[in-house]
Design goal:
Elements: E1 22-28, E2 31-40, E3 48-55, E4 60-65, E5 74-81, E6 90-98, E7 104-114, E8 125-129, E9 133-139, H1 143-206, H2 211-237, H3 246-266, H4 270-278
Antiparallel strand pairs: 1-2, 1-4, 3-6, 4-5, 5-9, 6-7, 7-8
Helix pairs in contact: 1-2, 1-3, 2-3
Length: 283
């Protein structure tokens, strides 16, 4: 017994990747300090989040596309409402993320005091303030624009679903036509084969008949064969214009007519009556 081939199934997980690099600029008064790292490098998966720390208390954070060839505009500006801290070594901690839609967000901001080098078991940072207020001073897309974009995304998604549905319906219709056409040639071929088999059987029986009866039977077989040749050509030349189920019925009518005429001829020969008792099967 032949062994069945082994099929190995592989499962894949689709991960969304952000196609651009995001960085930020710290604004303290009129000064801007460009950070030397990016928040989310190009190709970062999303949703994704990061925790970043930097010294000082910036007034504003500008989030930018680090590659100006991607987009020459800013992602947005964010103001962090920080409390007054007098002469302390402080740093700011931000929790940022790319959400499920690939949109940059600042989740929280905290103010930490740097306690300097301490023992291994002692903390080096002290939390001074948490849940600081974050205001969006400027974003490249307003809430209204974002809502409009989301509505358009939903509309495009529905269009994709409708297109896939229409494609499935078209494939179903094409499969139905294909299967129907396959059934039609099979039905026509089987009907034609039955008539040809019947003609061959009566010609074989005619060989045992007297010459006169033999000629009559062979003439009837020739007429049936000529009818089949003439009407087959006519039928196949006009397949698109007639019901495909009519051809088997035409052939069946011709077969039954041939049987009646040949049986009538052979009734006048006693020997053929004996052969008829044995029965003649026609497939």
């Amino acid at each position: 017994m032949l062994s069945q081939p082994n099929h190995q199934l592989r499962y894949y997980k689709v991960q969304d990747l952000f196609p651009y690099s995001l960085g930020f600029i710290l604004v303290e008064g009129v000064n801007k300090t460009q950070q030397d790292f990016t928040l989310f490098p190009k190709g970062s998966p999303f949703p994704s989040d990061r925790v970043i720390q930097y010294p000082g208390i910036p007034q504003c954070i500008e989030v930018i596309y680090t590659n100006k060839m991607d987009f020459p505009v800013e992602v947005g500006q964010f103001m962090i409402g920080l409390p007054y801290i007098a002469d302390q070594k402080v740093k700011t901690e931000l929790r940022v993320k790319l959400n499920d839609h690939g949109i940059f967000e600042i989740e929280s901001a905290s103010l930490l005091e740097d306690l300097g080098a301490r023992s291994f078991f002692s903390p080096t940072e002290k939390i001074l303030a948490t849940n600081l207020i974050i205001d969006n001073l400027y974003v490249s897309m307003t809430k209204e624009e974002l809502a409009e974009a989301q509505n358009r995304e939903q509309m495009l998604a529905e269009q994709d679903i409708n297109a896939e549905h229409a494609k499935e319906q078209r494939n179903t219709a094409e499969n139905f036509v294909y299967n129907t056409r396959n059934k039609d040639p099979n039905a026509r071929a089987q009907a034609t084969k039955r008539l040809l088999t019947c003609i061959a059987d009566y010609r074989s029986i005619a060989d045992s008949l007297p010459p006169g009866l033999k000629e009559e039977v062979n003439n009837e077989c020739s007429k049936a064969e000529q009818w089949l040749n003439d009407h087959s050509a006519q039928h196949y030349s006009s397949l698109n214009n007639i019901d495909p189920l009519l051809w088997p019925e035409f052939v069946k009518f011709s077969l039954e007519s041939l049987e009646r005429r040949c049986e009538h001829i052979m009734r006048s020969d006693p020997a053929s009556q004996m052969d008829k008792g044995k029965g003649m099967q026609v497939d």
